[in-house]
Design brief:
The complex is a heterodimer of chains A (344) and B (359). Chain A is built from 11 helices and 12 strands. In chain A, helix 2 runs parallel beside helix 10 (276-289), helix 3 packs parallel to helix 4 (111-120) and helix 5 runs parallel beside helix 6 (174-190). In chain A, the strands form 2 sheets. A 6-stranded parallel beta sheet of chain A has the order 2-1-3-4-5-11, with helices on both faces. Chain A has a 6-stranded mixed beta sheet with strand order 7-6-8-9-10-12, sandwiched between helices. Chain A is 47% helix and 18% strand. With 344 residues, chain A is α/β, with parallel strands linked by helices. Chain A has 2 domains: 2-143 and 275-303, Response regulator (Rossmann fold, 3-Layer(aba) Sandwich), CATH 3.40.50; 145-273 and 309-333, Response regulator (Rossmann fold, 3-Layer(aba) Sandwich), CATH 3.40.50. In chain A, helix 8 (232-245) links the parallel strand 8 (224-228) and strand 9. The radius of gyration of chain A is 23 Å and the shape is globular. By secondary structure, chain B is mostly helical. Chain B starts with a helix and ends with a helix. Classes of the chains: A alpha/beta (344), B mainly alpha (359). Chains A and B meet through helix 1 and helix 3 of A and helix 4, helix 12, helix 14 and helix 16 of B. Chain B: One of its GO terms (cellular component) is plasma membrane. Chain B: InterPro entries: ABC_transp_permease. Chain B: Keywords: Cell membrane, Membrane, Transmembrane, Transmembrane helix.
């Protein structure tokens, strides 16, 4: 009995000490913010899809973009991660009802929920990546993924040694089929004899699945895999990294952002970069400037909305890159029309 | 009334409450270690749940399926079975309700909605019935069968949605007919567009049914007898095998209904699952927190649902990652499961009380 009293006394004391320490911690960031020279006190929120903010893919690049908006303008930015699909609506509503100037929804998955929230709150400003939401107060940003994927398809076809190339998609939705169709077309444009193996993991948040699929593909003699599968692709990279360490020569083509920065250029051949960050910054700043209008925009090669990563020259020889530039010019001029879905 | 008080005899009420408090303290310590302010975090959790009608409504939405899967687990538990397959039964209930909701047309809402609910419950029950049958006839362990059936249910329902109900170019089914909806539009308007539905009411009725059936009927008595000691029950002339199947069937109905509510009241469509939704597994924890009593289960689901729906409030208001709230929930369950610890801490209090009584 006495022992317990003593123990709880000690616990209580230590708790209060730690609590006191915490109080001090709290003051610091507030002071920093005050000296930071705030230009605006607007608040911008972002809701991720189930991939989460650390998906090393488009959620992450959207968040990085918002962080840099914060640095430039002093706007307050926060994000909410959605654990499952039931949380999209409440999370969007948290920001909308919390009086945020702009609410981002990242991903095709949030389309239906954003439509509902936008219609229920006509005064709120919202923006979405990868989906078209037909409401006047929503800015929809989509990308011509097929054009960018065509270019990495060209790279893959030129670089493969085995003549077998793989594609791993997250789920069979219009966004991802654009990746697949463009990639396949790009490979076929260089060498129609190369076989592309197309597999859908069925999920954007299952690295284990990605690893299994990649392992099967590499065992089949595939030496380059292009993935468009969010965090599932982490598994593809892990499998490739393990194999490269064992002396095998395999590559992954990254997606959405320059993934060589994340996974190293020993496994990352190149990346199909999507200008999610540029788009997020642009729309966010429109809201801050008061020029936000809503509507939809599709960003392609000519807007630099998609393209291959700048660091590609580390692994891709100059003649291949020159060929890529050639194709790029042809796509922009309209000489080549890249298909948006697979022919059945 | 007195009887109702007896249900929550002091011991069975105090231990969960103390366990919850311990869990919150552990959560606070972890937040401190991570550099977050626990008081701000808990207060923003509280205000996001009770601060406005929208948050409150969405919390009720979160609680409802947890009550159902919690009841499912608790019911089987009382009959001596561990139904770890509430997850699968929940998914099957969802799918059955979606099929009836989409494919059956031309019925008035008064018939269509109940039909979809019944289909969901029944299919959930049959799915669990497989487990009960195998256990009764062949003595196959119900834990193994039901956990395997979770995966079967997941991929089976994905197959159905993908091949028969798919909305072109999307990862989800078509919308159900408006006549099958159990959403309460008027109440939702009042609650600032929170997704309210009739399922919540049915969930509470289901808990009452659970209580009456289990403790006020002969059949319930048999179920409990089988749960306590199957050999003794058999010796007393009860049909143990039939009781096992029955217990699993009713347990599955609860879980299936939970899934049906989710489709008919919240989403109005079914998505292709990339992974298990987890509501059935949470139901195990809910039933444990509720000491496998139906009314305890409602309280357990309320606690669990409040914490889950408030977790986004915590990250919204105090920047605490939602993982921390899972740690808090985890530690609450830990303290309930490890009752010995709670009893040990409370022992001096009990001793004191006894002394007072003597005086």
């Amino acid at each position: 009995m006495k022992k317990i009293l003593k123990a709880s006394l000690v616990l209580g004391l230590s708790l209060s000490v730690v609590l006191a320490g915490c109080g001090k911690n709290e003051e610091k960031p507030a002071g920093e913010a005050a000296t930071g020279g705030a230009k605006t006190d607007m608040k911008i929120g972002m809701v991720t899809d189930v991939g989460g903010v650390n998906d090393k893919s488009f959620n992450q690049s959207a968040w990085e973009a918002l962080t840099s908006v914060k640095k430039d303008t002093g706007a307050e930015v926060t994000y909410l991660q959605s654990k499952d699909k039931t949380e999209y609506t409440p999370n969007l509503n948290k920001y909308v009802k919390g009086g945020y100037a702009l609410t981002w929804g990242i991903g095709f998955d949030l389309g239906a929920d954003m439509k509902t929230v936008a219609d229920q709150n006509p005064d709120a400003k919202l923006a979405i990546i990868d989906a078209v939401v037909d409401s006047p107060n929503v800015q929809s940003v989509t990308f011509s993924e097929h054009e960018g994927s065509f270019l990495v398809g060209v790279v893959a076809a030129k670089m493969t040694k085995t003549g077998k190339i793989g594609f791993v998609g997250g789920a069979e939705i219009p966004v991802i089929t654009r990746f697949q169709a463009g990639f396949n077309a790009g490979v076929a444009a260089v060498n129609p004899d190369i076989k592309v193996k197309n597999v859908y993991a069925g999920a954007f948040d299952k690295p284990d699945q990605g690893k299994v699929i990649a392992s099967t593909m590499y065992n089949d003699g595939v030496d380059i895999i292009f993935h468009a599968s969010g965090a599932t692709g982490t598994g593809v990279f892990n499998e490739a990294t393990a194999r490269v360490k064992n002396g095998e020569k395999v590559w992954v083509i990254g997606v959405d952002k320059d993934q060589s920065l994340e996974f190293g250029d020993k496994v990352t051949l190149t990346s199909m970069v999507k200008g999610v960050d540029a788009a997020v910054q642009k729309v966010s700043k429109e809201v801050i400037d008061g020029t936000f209008k809503g509507g939809k925009v599709e960003l392609g090669l000519k807007d630099d909305g998609v393209g291959i990563a700048k660091t590609s020259d580390r692994n891709v020889p100059a003649d291949v890159l020159a060929l890529v530039e050639e194709y790029k010019a042809k796509i922009i001029s309209g000489e080549i029309k890249v298909p948006q879905d697979m022919k059945k | 009334m007195n009887k109702l008080m007896k249900i929550f005899t002091l011991d069975s009420l105090i231990i969960p409450v103390v366990a919850v408090i311990f869990g919150l303290i552990v959560g606070a310590l972890i937040m401190l270690a991570g550099g977050y302010d626990p008081i701000l975090a808990y207060s923003s959790l509280f205000s996001s749940v009770f601060g406005d009608s929208y948050g409150f409504g969405e919390t009720i939405r979160e609680i409802t399926p947890l009550i159902m899967t919690g009841l499912a687990v608790a019911f089987a538990f009382r009959a001596g079975l561990f139904n770890i397959g509430a997850e699968g039964q929940y998914i099957i209930g969802m799918t059955a309700a979606t099929i009836v909701g989409i494919k059956v047309t031309g019925l008035p809402a008064l018939i269509h909605a109940p039909l979809a609910i019944i289909a969901g419950g029944l299919c959930g029950g049959l799915w669990a019935g497989i487990v009960g049958y195998l256990k009764a006839k062949r003595g196959v362990n119900e834990v193994i069968v039901s956990i395997m059936l979770n995966w079967t249910a997941l991929y089976f329902s994905n197959y159905i949605v993908r091949n028969f109900l798919l909305l072109e170019g999307q990862q989800k089914s078509l919308d159900i007919q408006p006549t099958a909806s159990i959403s309460l539009g008027g109440l939702s308007m009042l609650m600032d567009n929170a997704r309210m539905h009739m399922g919540t009411l049915i969930a509470i009725l289901a808990a009452v049914f659970f209580y009456v059936y289990m403790w006020k009927s002969k059949q319930g008595y048999e179920l409990r007898a089988v749960g306590h000691n199957p050999n003794a029950a058999e010796y007393a002339g009860m049909n143990v095998k039939r009781n096992i199947v029955k217990a699993m069937f009713i347990s599955g109905i609860f879980a299936g209904l939970g899934g049906a509510f989710q489709v008919l009241g919240v989403f109005h469509y079914q998505t292709i699952f990339t992974g298990s939704p987890g509501v059935g597994f949470d139901g195990i924890a809910v039933a444990l927190i509720g000491m496998t009593h139906p009314f305890g289960t409602i309280l357990g689901a309320t606690l669990f649902g409040t914490l889950t729906s408030g977790s986004s409030g915590m990250s919204f208001g105090a920047g605490v990652p939602p993982e921390i709230i899972r740690i808090v929930i985890g530690s609450i369950i830990f303290f309930i499961a490890a009752q010995g610890i709670v009893r040990w801490v409370l022992k001096p209090l009990y001793l004191k009380r006894k002394k007072e009584k003597v005086l």
